Amino acid sequence: MTERKRRFSAGFGVFSLLLVLFLVVAVAGGILLNQRLRARFGEEERRLLDLRRETAAMERHLERTSALLGLYKNSLSRLDAYVLQFPRDRVGFFSAVESELTKYDVEVKRIAPAQATVSGRTAVTVEFEGPYYTILKAMADWRVMPVTVRVGSLSLAFSDNKGRVTGSTLLETVLEGEGER
C-alpha cells in the first residue's frame, strides 16, 4: 500500500470512528432528551388537570355566590318596598293599638302610657281579655298595623276553663319626627 492509501485508510478509519461515535452520542442524547420531555409533559398534564379542577370549583363557587347575590338583591328590593310608618302622636298610637284588639272583639281592660325600654320610644301597657285563639289572631295583626310596633313584653294566663285568657303587653313605637330610626 502506498503512503497515500495508508493515509486515506487511516483518515477514513478515524472519520468512520468519529461518525459512529457522533451517531452513538446523538442517539443517546435523543433518548435522554425524550425521557426528560416525557417527564416534563407528565408534570404539565398533571398541572393542567389540577387547573381544570380548580377552575370547575371556582365556577361552582361563582354560581353559588351569584345565586346568593340574587337572593340578597331580591330581599333588599322587598325591604325597599316596605314603608315604615310612625304614629304622629301618642293618641294615634294608643288608638291604633286599641282598634286592632277591638276588631277581634278582644276586651281592652286598661290601656296606659308606660316606660319604654329604650329612650326615644313611646310605650303603652295594654291589659286585655278574650278567647285564646282570637287574641292570637289580634297579635298576629300587630305585624301589619298601620303603624310600626315593637312588642316589648307579653304575658298570657288562662282566666277560666272555657278558653278565655287575660293578657298584658308592653308595645313600643317611635313617634313621627322623634326618637331613633
How would you describe the overall organization of this protein?
- The chain is an alpha+beta fold.
- The chain has helices spanning 3-81, 90-102, 132-141; strands spanning 107-114, 122-131, 150-158, 164-173.
- The chain has two domains: 1-82; 90-173, Alpha-Beta Plaits (2-Layer Sandwich), CATH 3.30.70.
- It is 56% helix and 20% strand.
- Strands 1-2-4-3 form a four-stranded antiparallel sheet.
- β1 and β2 (122-131) form a beta hairpin.
- It is rod-shaped.
- The termini are far apart.
Number of helices: 3
Looking at CATH, which topology of the largest domain would you report? Alpha-Beta Plaits
Number of strands: 4
Structural class: alpha+beta
- Beta-strand share of residues: 15-25%
- Residue share in helices? 55-70%
Largest sheet: 4 strands, antiparallel
Number of structural units classed as domains: 2
Task: Write the CATH homologous superfamily of the largest domain.
Answer: Ribosomal protein S6/Translation elongation factor EF1B
CATH level-1 class of the largest domain = Alpha Beta
H-E order: HHEEHEE
Q: Which strand order spans the largest sheet, edge to edge or round the barrel?
A: 1-2-4-3
Unreliable segments of 5+ consecutive residues: none
* CATH architecture level-2 label of the largest domain: 2-Layer Sandwich
- Estimate the mean pLDDT confidence: 84
Query: What is the CA-based Rg, rounded?
Result: 45 Å
* Cα end-to-end separation: 120 Å
Shape: rod-shaped
